[in-house]
Amino acid sequence: MTPESLLGIGVGLALAAAAGFRVFVPLVVLSLAAKAGWIELSPSFAWLSSTSASVALVTAMVLEIAAYYVPFFDNMLDTLAAPVAVLAGIVASASVLTDLPPWIQYSIAIIGAGGTAGAVHASTSLLRLKSSAATAGLGNPILATLELAGAIAIALLAVLAPLLSLAAVVLIVWVVAKRVTAWRLANARGARSAG
User: Fold this and answer.
1) What's the predicted TM-score (pTM) here?
2) 161 SS3 class
3) What string of DSSP letters covers 96-112?
4) Is the separation of the CB atoms in 117 and 17 below 8 Å?
5) Average pLDDT, whole number, for the chain?
6) Residue 97: count of CB within 10 angstroms of its CB
7) Is the pLDDT of residue 166 over 90?
C-alpha cells in the first residue's frame, strides 16, 4: 500500500466519523472540496462534485441541522438517521480511496468507515437520550451545537490536514469505546444489585 493509499484511508475514516455526528456535513465538505480541486474522487463518485449534488447536499444539511434543534424530534431523527449515517460514511470513504482495487476500497469503506460512522452515531444517540431524560430536552440544543461543531471540524480537518484528522478519529473511537465500556459496567452493576 502506498502512502497516498494510507492517507486516503485516514481521510475516509475521518469523513465517516464526521458523518456519525451529522450525516450531510462531511458530504458537503467533500463535494465542495472536490469541486475546488482540493481532493480527488474515485471515478465512480465523481457525481459528488457536480453542482446539482452540491445543492442537494447543502439543502439536506441545512434541514438536518435545523431538525436537531427540535427537542424530542431529535431523538426520533437519531433512530432514522442511524443507517443513513453508516451509508454516508461508506460513500464518503469509498469516494476518496482512489488508488485501491475495488475489493479493498469497498471492504475498508463498509467495514472501517461504516463501523466508525455507526459507532459515533450510536454514541451521540445515547448521549442525546440521557440529555433528554436529565434535562427534559432543554440540554439537547447544546448537544446539537457541539455535534455540529465536531462534524464541521473533523470534515474540514480530513480535507485540510488528513493526518491530524486521523488522530482525531482515533481519539473519538477511544472515547466512544471507553463510554460504552463504562455504560456496560454500570448496567451490569445495576443488574447485580437489583437481582
Assistant:
1) 0.86
2) coil
3) H-TTS-HHHHHHIIIII
4) yes
5) 89
6) 24
7) no
Residue 138 DSSP symbol: T
Closest CA to 93 of 36, 39, 51: 39
Residue with more model confidence, 49 or 164: 49
Neighbours of 126 (CB within 10 A): 15
Domain boundaries, the chain: 3-194
> Tens of pLDDT along 4-51?
777 888 889 999 999 999 999 999 999 999 999 999 999 999 999 999
User: pLDDT of 61-73, one tens digit each?
Assistant: 999 999 999 888 8
DSSP 11-38: HHHHHHHHHHH-SSHHHHHHHHHHHTTS
Q: 69: which DSSP letter?
A: T
Q: Which amino acid is at 149?
A: A
Terminal Cα distance for the chain, rounded: 53
Compute the distance between CA of residue 69 and CA of residue 89 in angstroms, rounded to an integer. 23
Q: What single DSSP character describes residue 47?
A: G
Q: What is the dihedral of CA 178, 109, 158, 122, to 10 degrees?
A: -30
What count of other Cβ atoms lies within 10 Å of the Cβ of residue 177?
12
Instruction: Dig out the grid coordinates for 16 from the structure.
Output: 465517516
Which grid cell is 124?
451521540
CA distance 154 to 152: 6
